[in-house]
Amino acid sequence: MAARLIRSAPAVPGSSGARVGGVWARHDIGLFVAAGGASVIGALLVWSATERTAGSAYLVRHLVTAAVGLAVAVLVSRAGRGRLRSAAPWAWAAAVVLLLLVRTPVGATINGSRSWIPLAAGFTLQPAELVKPALTLALAALLAGALDRGSDPGLRRLVSATALVGVPTALVVVQPDLGTALVLLALGFAVVLVGGAPRRWVALALGLAVAAAVAAWTTPLLSDYQRARLTAFADPTADPLGAGYQTAQVRRAVGGGGLWGQGFMSGPRTQGGFVPFQLNDFVFSVAAEELGFVGAAGLVVLLGVLVVRVLVVAARAEDPFGRLVGVGVATWLAVQVVENVGMNLALLPVTGLPLPFVSYGGTSMLVSWLAVGLVDAAAGDPEVTRR
Fold first, then answer.
1. How far apart are CA 379 and CA 123, in angstroms?
2. How far apart are the C-alpha atoms of 367 and 87, rounded to whole Å?
3. Could you report the per-residue pLDDT of 64-97, keeping only the tens digit for each?
4. Sheet of strand 108-110, all strands in order from the earlier edge strand to the far edge
5. How far apart are CA 190 and CA 212, in angstroms?
6. 3 state SS for the chain
7. Spatial separation of the C-alpha atoms in residues 168 and 97, rounded to whole Å
8. pLDDT per position as a tens digit, 328-385
9. Among 80, 68, 69, which Cα is nearest to 317's?
10. How far, in Å, are 59, 62, 191, 299 from residue 38 at the CA level?
């Protein structure tokens, strides 16, 4: 059924407000505006969380990274979906190589997770973030072949899709980085499902995902630090000076915002530095404390509009490849938003996932903007985007 729907989905013409003439006639302005708005709000929240201790240093770096990300998105959006489809296997292979490099002396361990490669001038690269766009492209290119011919994917393609998802996910799990692994599994599941996978394969994939989660919890795979963060979700009093302290402070910051908030740069816990990792993992608590329910809800709505816009752009794509890329990106962004907001509200365990476009983090910001470029390019007119 999913395969029939994606094959028959017509290209939806964009509104005049979303497109402009000339060489940009096939680019979605609304997509870029929504991402830009989230990045600006994120810069203000990061500034509020760090101004007391670092002045405007983090604000400047956040804005520079966002500007570079925007430039990357524009360049990628001009590439055309044909080039993206050709580059898909190389992007996946490069991402896997970088994940392997993390396990060598080149990699670095931070907070119990060996997930980074140090670069110059204090910058770091997180290869697990790069896997998200690479996996999206690889799965879309693999499954679009059968849909182009009007048929469902065969056994061979489904086995290949399983390998495309399984290899990088396993490498991310052993870092360990369960948050990113969950995003990769959800992304892969959504693309394969929409790509026409039979129900028995969907059930098998769900079973394997559950088995992997159980194995991660019942074996020494998780570090003590990560296990403590998961335990603190259920009982913050179990470690009141460690992981439980973090969870308790986030709850107090969110609850202290009330309806309208304490005021920008006026949150007692934000300005007092009580919440660890408030510029990245828990940046949403800054919005909740200083902007209140209204401001925090507005941020969630903006990110929701961005996800919906990705699906709208994907729906008007002229071939299955573009639609599958849109489904993958929308799933990846939606899962991250739900998980990050959920852990800030103490509704989900703390997994360390950043809030797309909002949290401080160079690789996360660049990859979030890259996602915008991929969707815009994959759904665009190849004749226009190569002009």
1. 33
2. 16
3. 999 999 999 999 988 888 899 999 999 999 999 9
4. 108-110, 113-118, 124-125
5. 18
6. CHHHHHHHCCCCCCCCCCCCCHHHCCCCHHHHHHHHHHHHHHHHHHHHHHHHHHCCHHHHHHHHHHHHHHHHHHHHHCCCHHHHHHHHHHHHHHHHHHHHHHCCCCCEEECCEEEEEECHHHCEECHHHHHHHHHHHHHHHHHHHHHHCCCCCCHHHHHHHHHHHHHHHHHHHCCCCHHHHHHHHHHHHHHHHHCCCCHHHHHHHHHHHHHHHHHHHHCCCCCHHHHHHHHHHHCHHHCCCCHHHHHHHHHHHHHCCCCCCCCCCCCHHHHHCCCCCCCCCCHHHHHHHHHHHHHHHHHHHHHHHHHHHHHHHHHCCCCHHHHHHHHHHHHHHHHHHHHHHHHHCCCCCCCCCCCCCCCCCHHHHHHHHHHHHHHHHHHCCHHHHCC
7. 10
8. 999 999 999 999 999 898 888 888 889 999 999 889 999 999 999 999 988 765 444 3
9. 80
10. 14, 12, 25, 7
Identify the bridge partners of residue 124 per DSSP, sorted by sequence position.
118
Tokens of 361: 């983090």
- HSE of 311, CA atoms in CB hemisphere, 13 A: 14
Degrees (nearest 5) of the Cα angle 182, 186, 187? 115
Contact 30, 18 (CB under 8 A): yes
Inter-residue contact 358 to 45 (CB < 8 Å): yes
d(CA 284, CA 341): 7
Q: Tell whether the torsion through CA atoms of 285, 172, 166 and 79 is positive or negative.
A: positive
> Residue 5 burial by CB count (10 A; 0-12/13-18/19+): exposed, middle or buried?
exposed
The residue type at 148? D
pTM assigned to the model? 0.85
